[in-house]
Each structure stands twice: as structure tokens, then as C-alpha cells.
User: Fold Stearoyl-CoA desaturase (Delta-9 desaturase) from Amycolatopsis jiangsuensis.
Amino acid sequence: MTQTLQRPPNTAEPMLAGEKSRTETFLVKLFAVVPLLALAAAVPFAWGWGLGWTDVALAIGFYFLTGLGVTIGFHRYFTHGAFKANRGLRIALAATGSMAMQGPVIGWVADHRRHHAFADREGDPHSPWRYGTSAAALAKGFWHAHMGWLFDREKTNAQRFAPDLLADRDIARIDRWFPALTVVTLLAPAVLGGLVTMSWWGALTAFFWASLVRVAVLHHVTWSVNSLCHMIGDRPYAARDKSANFWPLAIASMGESWHNSHHADPTGARHGVRRGQLDMSARLIWLFEKVGWATEVRWPKPERLARKLNPGYSAAPRGFGKAERGLLTETPDRSRS
Ligand SMILES: [Zn+2]
Ligand SMILES: [Zn+2]
Assistant:
């Protein structure tokens, strides 16, 4: 059985904006593969001489700092507008997300909006279903959705998919600063590790674990949302694509692996909408709302989710506690899918 891809409607702007240059594709490959090789080489490293608590603390710290920059910033805020942020938070989110080394913010957002516009259909930059549904086609599709798509030379047209960000001077500047932020994200752990241990060796091990390994692991977790979370897992909500909730990645992905719920309600600030579904990013947005940095947060609406429920699933999402009363307030529906 082969998958027939439906042709999406045409709009005024072309989908692609030419091809990436050879240098650009080379750099994408380099930064995707080198940290991964570093991770493999790390296995023989032993605790006590090449790895210590300072490295672990820095690796975890930078993992979540940059990861939340992507999940809260690039994804829920810049791509989907799940809340409004003050200028400081907006800049901080763009900068920390850029430090995840997943590309500059505007390109990331354009690709991801294109993913939602064409999810698992022709035009989706990273659908694992691109080649069909046979085992061989899915193996090829998994690779394509996980990281192969990054090596494609086609470039999503930001004029069409992210004109709001192109017009924003702060964001356009941070977008241009991506190479500098890459240097920062790689060097900061080394500098901190060196200062804490007051040794060159401490700087080197921190660079290894908290720069290279940390970037590699976050890359694979993020890519898994594109690959695994469109292949395996639970589908409690009706979506026009094959998105699924894959629980094993809930913590590592900071709530992004509740991907079926996300595709069912793309502008929602919380993806883990059902009972027991950990969503660290949503908790932090809640905290930003408490201190007043985030406003007009689009907490999921139980009645909207209930309408999208697939047969066989109970309507009861997670308990709506006092702290989350905002969930039940009605806000205008600006959802984009
Ligand atoms: Zn998706
Ligand atoms: Zn999304």
C-alpha cells in the first residue's frame, strides 16, 4: 500500500525560496554529525577522570536552558503564538533557542509552520510517511524525518511563513547573530568548567560533555518529535496527520512529545493536556505568567479538546487545579493548524 499525498492549496507566495548554498548544506551536516560522533566517542570515558559533577551540572543546565528556548520560545511562542511575551522575555527566548544550534530562529519557525500547514502531506519538510507505508518506505521515511530532511537543499520561504518575524528588528538581529550565539553556546560551558575547577582539563571535559554531548542529545530528542512522534504512540485526539503522543520522551523533550495533542490544538500553551502528562515547558510558561512576563496565555480549553476526542478515549483530561483556572477562560480562537 502506498500513501497518496494530497496536494495542498496554492497561495500567492512560493513555498520555497531557492536552494541552500553548498556551504550551508555542508555546515548543517557538520553540526549534525560531529556532535553525534562525539557522543559515540564518549562511551569509553570513565567517571572520575574525564567526567565529573561539574560536567554533569553544566550539561544538564545548558540542555534545559537551550531546550526550553526551543520548546517555549521557537516553538510555542514564535511559531504558534501560544502567549504574548514582554520584550525581555522575547529576546531571551530567541537567544537561548538559538543556542540549541538548530538553526536561526526565523528559518526554524518557517520550517515548523510549513510542517503544520502540510503535516504528513506533500509540502511537509519532514514527514516520515513521505515514501509510503511499507517497512522499507518507513525506514527511509524515519531517516528523512529525523535528520535527513536537514540535508535537503530546499529552503522554506520565510517571506511566506514567517513575515512577522522578518519584520521584527529584535528578532531579525538575533537571527543574524546565530553564528555568534553558536560560539557562545559551545564556549560558555568550557569557560565555566575551567573556572569552577580552575584547570584546563576541567574546561576540556566541560566542553566535551556540556557542549558537544549536550547539543547532540538535544538534537536527537528534538528530531525524535519530528520522526518518532509522527509514527508511534497514542492518538487520543483527531488530527489531520499522523502525530502521536510518545510518553518516553516527555521529560527529555520538555513536554513536546505530547505531539498528537499539540497537532490537535497547535496554539495551546500546554501540550501535556491529559492527566499525568508532564509538561515542563507549560509549567515554566505558567511561571512566566505569574511574574507578568507572559500574558494572554492560551491554556487549552477542555470543551475544545473534548470535541476533538477520538473514539475510545475518555474526555477527562488532567485535573484543572486552582492555579490553572486560566484554562477555563474563553479567549478568541486564533488557532492555526
Ligand atoms: Zn508534528
Ligand atoms: Zn508545532
In short: The longest strand covers residues 16-19. The two ends are 27 Å apart (CA to CA). The longest helix spans residues 53-79.
